[in-house]
Amino acid sequence: MLISEPPGDEGQLYTRVDDEQYDELSELTGQQVVHVSVWEEGLADAVSSPGTKESAGDDTEVAADIDLYLRDGVYFELYGTLCYTDIDAAPLTDLRQIEQELQRLVEAGAQLEEIAVDEDDGLVLVLGQNHQPVIYLQVGAWLLDEWEELPESSAP
């Protein structure tokens, strides 16, 4: 499935969801998540000044950069993503924990259950199993593209 993009918009970084995008993204619901990668060092780390990162073990929000691949050939590059296992709780605060939770979901056959929008028109991806939400990804920015081959690390 190809997500339509206006000519010249290839590789455009999105930060807000408009009505047309919402409709297009909603067509992806129900697809199985076949691969996920959490980046050890995200885009925000690359542009931040040395000494501005919080020390490990602080109970601060961790915004992860994540590649999320769907069964039918579409993948998201998610930047500045907060990961919640409970919509009413604080986000996960450890990159390893985020990666383990997402990997567990992929192995269990998780699907993209819902496309949602937060109060600032930001993208929220809801991943789940058996039509039950399991993790909420509140995305700071994203790119959407197609994949033909999964990354090497996902080979059986």
Features:
156 residues, alpha+beta, 7-stranded antiparallel β-sheet, 17% helix, disordered N terminus
Kindly give the count of domains: 1
Estimated structural class: alpha+beta
What sequence of helices (H) and strands (E) makes up the elements? Answer: HEHEEHEEEE
Distance between the ends: 24 Å
Write the layout of secondary structure elements.
Blueprint: H1 19-26, E1 33-38, H2 43-47, E2 64-70, E3 74-84, H3 95-107, E4 111-117, E5 123-129, E6 132-138, E7 141-146
Description:
The chain contains 3 helices and 7 strands, in the order αβαββαββββ. With about 160 residues, it is of the alpha+beta class. It has one domain. β5 and β6 form a beta hairpin. The radius of gyration is 15 Å and the shape is globular.
Provide a compact summary of the structure.
The protein is α+β, with helices and mostly antiparallel strands and 156 residues long. Helices cover 17% and strands 33% of the residues.
